[in-house]
Amino acid sequence: MRFTVARIGFAASLLLTLGIAGWWYPQLPETVASHFGPGGVADGWMRKDSFFAIFLLLGVGSVAAVPLVGLVVGMLPTSLLNLPNKDYWLAPERREASMARLQSWLVEFGAVSMVLMAYILHITCQANVAEEAVLPDGFMRAMVVFLAYTVLWTVGLLWAWRVPR
Q1: Are the CB atoms for 39 and 27 separated by under 8 Å?
Q2: pLDDT for res 46
Q3: What is the pLDDT of residue 3?
Q4: What is the DSSP track for 86-118?
Q5: pLDDT tens per residue across span 66-118
Q6: Helix (H, G, I), strand (E, B) or coil at 53
Q7: CB 3.0–4.6 Å: which of 33, 83, 117, 139 could bond 42 by disulfide?
Q8: Which long-range contacts (CB under 8 A, 24 or more apart) does 149-154 make?
Q9: Rounded-to-10 torsion of CA 20, 22, 28, 31
C-alpha cells in the first residue's frame, strides 16, 4: 500500500512540476533571471528556453532518477549493497520484500523532492515577472522544511531497517 501511495505521489508531483513549467513558459520574457545571490536578488540571467531546458533536464531529471535507483539497486548482487542489518534484510526469504520496501522509500523521497523542484520553479518564475527579480522569503523556509524532512526521512529509514525483536 505504501509503495502505491508513494508512486501516486511521485507521479502527481512530476505532473505538477511539468504543469507549472507549461503554465509559466509563455508568460516569461525571453531573458530570465536564473541565479539568485544573497537576499534572493537576481545576479545571473539566461535565455528562457535554455533555463527551462536545463531546469527540466538536470533538476527534474535528477530528482526523477531517485526512484529509478531503487529499481537498479534491486538488480545488484547482495555483496554490492550496503543496508543497515544487511544480512537479515537481504536473506533470500526477505530480499524481494526488502527491495520493494527500499523502492517505496526512494519513490517517497523523490516525490517530496519533486514538490520542492515545483516550488523553486514557481517562485523563480514569479520573480521573473515581478518589477524586481527577487525570490520571496518563502524560499529559505522551504529549504529548511526540506532539510528537516530529509533528516526525519533518514532517521525513519534507519529505524525501519533495524532487526525486529
Answers
A1: no
A2: 96
A3: 62
A4: HHHHTSTTTHHHHHHHHHHHHHHHHHHHHHHHH
A5: 888 877 888 888 888 888 899 999 999 999 999 988 888 999 999 999 999 99
A6: helix
A7: 33
A8: 149/112, 150/109, 153/105, 153/108, 153/109, 153/112
A9: 100
- Distance from C-alpha of 59 to C-alpha of 34, rounded to nearest angstrom: 13
pTM of the model: 0.88
**Distance in angstroms (rounded) separating the CA atoms of residues 56 and 49:** 11
Question: 21 near 52, Cβ under 8 Å?
Answer: yes
AA letter at 133: A
Set of cell numbers at residue 58: 538536470
- Going from the C-alpha of 66 to that of each of 27, 98, 109, 165, the distances in angstroms are 30, 17, 8, 31
Q: Which three cell numbers stand for residue 150?
A: 530529509
Share of the chain above pLDDT 90, in %: 59
The answer to whether 135 and 34 have CB atoms below 8 angstroms apart is no
In degrees rounded to 5, what are phi and psi of residue 92? -50, -40
Nearest 10 degrees: Cα torsion 38, 44, 50, 51: 20
pLDDT at 5: 83
Q: Residue 24: left (phi > 0), alpha (psi -120 to 50), or beta?
A: alpha
Closest-CA residue to 142 (of 103, 99, 113)? 113
Residue with more model confidence, 157 or 70: 157
